[in-house]
Amino acid sequence: MIYLMCFSLFSIGIYCILVKRNLIKIIIGLGIAEYAVNLFFILLGYRLRGRAPILAQDQVVENMVDPLPQALILTAIVIGLAVTVLVVAIALRIYEKYGTFDITKVKKLRG
Amino acid sequence: MKHELIPLFVAIPLGSAFLISLLGKRLKGLADTLSNLATFSLLFLSFLSITLVKRLGVVVYKVGGWIPPIGICMVLDSLTSFMLITVNLVAFLVTVYSISYMERYTSKWKFYTLFLLMLAGMDGVIVTGDLFNLFVFLEIASIASYALVAFGVEHEELEASFKYTVMGSVASSFILIGIALLYSYTSSLNMADISRVLTEKGNSRILSFVSGLFIMGFGLKAALVPFHAWLPDAHPSAPAPISAMLSGVLIKALGVYALMRIFFNVLGISSILSYMLMSLGVISMVLGGLLALGQEDIKRLFAYSSISQIGFVVLGIGMGTTLGILAGLFHLFNHATFKSLLFLNSGSIEYATGTRDLRKMGGLTAKMPVTGYSSLIGSMSISGIPPLSGFWSKLLIILAAIEAKHFIFASIAVLVSILTLAYYLKVQRLAFFGELKDSLRGIKEVPLTMKLSMIALSIICIFGGLLLVPGIQKNFLSSATQALMNGNNYAQIIFGSIK
Amino acid sequence: MKTEEPGMSLIVKTITRLTVGLILLYGIYIVTHGHLSPGGGFAGGVIIALSFIHLMLAFGKELALKKLNQSLSSLFEGFGAIMFLTIALIGFVGGYFFLNFISKGKPFNLFSAGIIPLCNIAICFKVGAGLFAVFVALTLLRMNGKKG
């Protein structure tokens, strides 16, 4: 089923965050996980044999997919973009300070 | 006094943040005055909100005039006004403090913009009555805090901020999955409406899955063990006023308040959930306390102590009885005041001496009396020495645990209180009493605004016990407790108050 | 011996000169028809930002910054945000927050649906300027090497 594919996409993203050592790969994993959640939310609004929820002058309201998740996921995509931008800027500065992208070497805080 | 003041809690900090971002670089001194004015007006409005709730009962504000459940509504009940006072009080005092503290950093206007955005997000989380709106404001506050932790771009701050960002985003994804599943089960996003549908539909397996997701997501925001790993890195590395805000109010407004609201009013508390919350609270208490004993960095010690005290709060709230929730909420308010006081103290130590290492300090009270005495008051209050405020709240939590017949939890709470006393005595001995080291001979007391906030917070610590006096308690704490104990009656109350 | 020219090859530059105006126009179309067809403020803002980024990629940093330098994009960004908040607050003073107070014309017309097109335009300013400023900040950081 489609929801199972969304779940496997999400677990691929979480796997990347937990296992990979390069900072950029962690950021990509974070992006994959977030997009998997967005995809899941949109798929929830599907109605069988529905159409796109755009109202024009000659269409009737019935038989449309649920438009509410689509509006919400627009917001969630923007939020994901903002987080990605912020974390990439932080990663760039980490590269300047530490000279490496390897997260096992970026460990100055202990205890 | 009309009910239109509810959106102002979000509009004022947002508007000031945007204005400061536009004009802050050109006009010097605009950032300071505008942000202080904004937080002071927010504090004034939160005090007004208590009288409003007492006069009108629960106030519901329909955004845009759309009737819920079609539209978004903002809800003001007594729990909301309680949290609003906590958040805005700490925010105002921290803003006063950062007038002089942030001179050390470049671009003060960027700091104020991000700070006011974070405050707008927190106020939005508290005030809203709609689940997805909660998620959006949660994200606004979280993203602002990720940026603020990395504010002075040194090694540690960047690394801490990176870890915090990744973990916080994963938590937000869990929360979004939970909201998606709840929406598919009840086909509504309004909190009152979901609560009404859930009482009609009854329990099912998907609700337990959603509860688990919410505990994971909000538990990471509230730094419950085992989701606490970001806190000991993020809170010390941030600049001191931000550490005070993060540890004092952010983990409470985003984590504990959202947990309370969703589990008590929307989903409905059950005994399994209650046990899970209580055990998570107890594990946090013990682990935070034990790990705090071995720290030498003063801010890292305070961060572990935060984990421990939030464990107390969650233990109190997880009990589900009236006395337990009252104790938990009282301890939440107290912890906001004394933890921010302690972090502001550590900030002034860092401002004056340039170090955060406990082994390098000693005998600071001679040179910095205000910092020393307020730190003494804060430490005694958090350890639970009578008659300061912390004693009353810890006593109430232990009494509530005994009353609900959880004797093991009560004894663990007593032991952890003694542990708390131990490591705060260590801080006091190493930092403030004892010999003044030679390298520290030239230090002076901190500037006036920093002194003012610390004195104000210590006064609140001393007189905090007065909140239990029956006249004041009825308005402030008991009504907040009642709002949570209403449980699923939340729906009836909200729908009854829509005009 | 050819001197190093900023930007990409001649083919890319010629095509960019032709298409960048069309991309900008398409973005403006999506923003203004946001209440009639899919798109709206955010998608249109991204496309408008993309047209400026396209200019920077093809021609190099200096020329793109001459068209829209950093302080101007910060100004646009703040202006968009304040416009959005002002629209909300005007509704607040009249009745409720975000109340739709401009007359809603006949449905499916371009000038209908109250405040929604204005909100779309405000969001387009903020998102477009913000995305462009972010891109400039990230590439400037890298190009200056070990800047503090």
Short description:
The complex is a heterotrimer of chains A (about 110), B (about 500) and C (about 150). By secondary structure, chain B is mainly alpha-helical.
Residue share in helix of chain B: over 70%
How large is the count of helical segments of chain C? 5
Rg of chain C: 19 Å
Q: Roughly what is the average pLDDT of chain B, rounded to an integer?
A: 82
How far from one another are the termini of chain C? 36 Å
Q: What percentage of amino acids of chain C are in beta strands?
A: under 5%
Largest interface: A-B, 33 and 36 residues
Structure characterization notes:
- The complex is a heterotrimer of chains A (111), B (499) and C (148).
- Chain A has a single domain (2-47, 65-98), classed as Helix Hairpins.
- Chain A is built from three helices and no strands.
- Chain A is mainly alpha-helical.
- Chain B has a domain at 269-468.
- Chain B is built from 19 helices and two strands.
- In chain B, strands 1-2 form a two-stranded antiparallel ribbon.
- Chain B is globular.
- Chain C is mainly α and 148 residues long.
- The A-B interface holds A 10, 14, 17, 23, 26, 30, 33-34, 37, 40-41, 44, 68-69, 72, 75-76, 79, 82-83, 86-87, 90-91, 93-94, 97-98, 106-109, 111 and B 132, 135-136, 139, 143, 146-147, 150, 153-156, 158-162, 165-166, 169-170, 172-173, 176-177, 180, 183-184, 189, 232-233, 237, 294-295, 297, 300.
Question: What is the element layout, followed by pairings?
Answer:
The complex is a heterotrimer of chains A (111), B (499) and C (148).
Chain A: H1 2-19, H2 23-44, H3 68-98
Helix pairs in contact in A: 1-2, 2-3
Chain B: H1 8-23, H2 30-56, E1 59-62, E2 73-76, H3 78-101, H4 108-127, H5 131-149, H6 155-186, H7 191-201, H8 205-221, H9 231-237, H10 240-267, H11 271-293, H12 298-318, H13 322-353, H14 369-383, H15 389-403, H16 407-432, H17 448-463, H18 470-485, H19 490-497
Antiparallel strand pairs in B: 1-2
Helix pairs in contact in B: 1-2, 1-4, 2-3, 3-4, 3-10, 3-13, 3-17, 3-18, 4-5, 4-10, 5-6, 5-10, 6-8, 6-9, 7-10, 7-19, 8-10, 9-10, 9-12, 10-12, 10-13, 11-12, 11-16, 12-13, 12-15, 12-16, 13-14, 13-15, 13-17, 13-18, 14-16, 14-17, 15-16
Chain C: H1 10-32, H2 41-59, H3 61-67, H4 70-94, H5 116-143
Helix pairs in contact in C: 1-2, 2-3, 2-5, 4-5
Index terms:
heterotrimer, A: 111 residues, mainly alpha, Helix Hairpins, 3 helices, 64% helix, elongated, C: 148 residues, 69% helix
